[in-house]
Structure formats: C-alpha cells, structure tokens
C-alpha cells in the first residue's frame, strides 16, 4: 500500500510539474492572472467554474482539446493560482480580464469554452467583446435565475463552507496551499451567486457568435432553460447530455471518470470546425 501511495504521489507531482511548465502570469486590470497555453492551432480559451481551477474543471479533457487547438486555460480572480484583489467578483470583471489577456497575447479572435460560472463569463464576453469572440461553448449555465432549480437558491440562503465539495477544496489547495485564500474564494463565489441578476434578454438575443449550449439532463440548470437559451441566441446549437453538472467533461466532482472517454468532445470538435 505504501508503494502504491508513493507512486500516486509521484504521478500527481509530475502532472503538476508539467502543468507548471506551461503556466505564466499576466497583469490585467490590476490582477496578476495565472494562465497556461497548451498545444497548437486556433485559440480556444477555457474558463473554469466557480470554486474551481483549470485542473478541477478541465483536467480530464484538456489534453484532448490541446491536440487540435492552442488551448489558453485561465484561472480567474480569487481562484487557484490567481490571487484576489480589492474589487467585487463579477462576470463583467472576469470577462474584462480575459479580454485584456487575449489582447496582451496578441490574439485578435478566439473560441471560448466556459463551464458553469465560466460559461456566464463566456456569455458576457460574447456580449461585451464580440470583436474578440469567434465561437462560444456555454456549458451548464443559465442567463436568468429561473433557469436553475429552486434548490440552488435555497442552498444559497444559508451557505456553509462544509458544503463545498471536498474535491474542489483539495484541487484548490493542490495549486495554492493557502487555506485562507480557499475560504475567501468560497465566500466570494457565494456572494456573487447570492446577488445573481438576470442577464438582459436583448443582450442574449443580440449574441452574434455561433454558440453551442451544453447541459446535463440532471444538471444544476434545467433542460427547459437550456432549450430556451438555444432559442434566444440566433445561431445556437443545443446538446442535452445524460448526467449531472459537468459529468460530460469529467469535472472533478463527478461520480465517475468515464475511463477517460468523453464522447461530447466529438460534438465539440465538430461544432468548432464548422465554417
């Protein structure tokens, strides 16, 4: 058993070391933002979910995505290796930070793949920075409160740090061992969700970027809302996938790893390749 544990520790260490070799920081809007670049091809920006890191949201699918794309994976304000600063946590600020990073990197246009809160940021990018956005993939998100099941908002009335999934806590501390930063990140995300306001419907209808909407049939967001969103955005496709919040990409809290096989990636690649 000790030998097995030693092997697992070595594997995790090597995995983190490989990630770090691709990791860099950029100062954007007063924020020292951590990001990684993997692979070659047309730029694809990955935006993680709330309480998450690059690895906990996209770790199981990033290597496959990097086979076809120049993947630019970011960690947003108060998440993982990107420290907090003295400003509100908001989708507007996150979108502004990603936009500023792309401009610094000399990337005039990119595809955007956001999960959960990161998908709300992707929608905001498409609305506020359309010149930077080619296509967007918005996974497991809503543009208005009624799009999520009522239990989510009930939970947000009396949140507890104990409710944060163990996998997300461990994933955060694996890249940033500051427990105070983890607690602060949790509180920041909770505050943002408690003050969540509906996006302007006309803004959603005005999105010009081709859009792929993905949701699980047992997700935090309702399938009905995913259908509604697909009808609001003029050039939208819709995928309702079996499973819960992020099962289809192997998000770290999902029950199974699907043996490394994520068929949704084929649909994503087909969407991104379409003219």
UniProtKB/TrEMBL annotation:
Residues 42-152 form the AB hydrolase-1 domain. One of its GO terms (molecular function) is triacylglycerol lipase activity. GO terms for biological process: glycerolipid catabolic process. This is Pimeloyl-ACP methyl ester carboxylesterase. It comes from the Bacteria. Keywords: Signal. Residues 1-19 form the signal peptide. It holds the Pfam family Abhydrolase_1. The keyword Signal applies. The keyword Chloroplast does not apply. SUPFAM superfamilies: alpha/beta-Hydrolases (SSF53474). PANTHER family: AB HYDROLASE-1 DOMAIN-CONTAINING PROTEIN (PTHR43433:SF5), HYDROLASE, ALPHA/BETA FOLD FAMILY PROTEIN (PTHR43433).
């Amino acid at each position: 058993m000790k030998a097995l544990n030693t092997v697992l520790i070595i594997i995790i260490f090597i995995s983190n070391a490989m990630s770090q070799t691709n990791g860099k920081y950029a100062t954007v809007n007063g924020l020292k933002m951590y990001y990684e670049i993997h692979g070659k091809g047309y730029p694809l920006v990955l935006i993680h979910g709330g309480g998450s890191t690059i690895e906990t949201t996209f770790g199981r699918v990033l290597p496959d995505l990097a086979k076809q794309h120049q993947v630019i994976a970011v960690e947003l304000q108060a998440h993982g290796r990107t420290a907090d600063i003295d400003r509100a946590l908001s989708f507007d600020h996150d979108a502004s930070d990603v936009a500023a990073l792309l401009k610094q990197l000399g990337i005039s246009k990119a595809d955007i793949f956001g999960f959960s809160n990161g998908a709300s940021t992707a929608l905001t990018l498409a609305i506020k920075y359309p010149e930077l956005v080619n296509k967007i993939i918005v996974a497991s998100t809503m543009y208005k409160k009624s799009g999520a099941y009522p239990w989510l908002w009930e939970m947000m009335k009396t949140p507890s740090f104990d409710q944060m999934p163990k996998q997300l806590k461990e994933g955060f501390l694996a890249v940033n061992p500051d427990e105070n930063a983890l607690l602060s990140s949790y509180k920041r995300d909770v505050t943002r969700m408690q003050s969540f306001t509906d996006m302007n419907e006309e803004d959603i209808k005005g999105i010009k970027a081709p859009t792929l909407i993905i949701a699980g049939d047992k997700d935090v967001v309702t399938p009905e809302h995913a259908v509604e969103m697909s009808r609001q955005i003029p050039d939208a496709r819709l995928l309702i996938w079996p499973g819960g919040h992020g099962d289809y990409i192997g998000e770290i809290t999902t029950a199974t790893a699907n043996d490394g096989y994520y068929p949704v990636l084929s649909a994503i690649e087909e969407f991104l390749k379409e003219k």
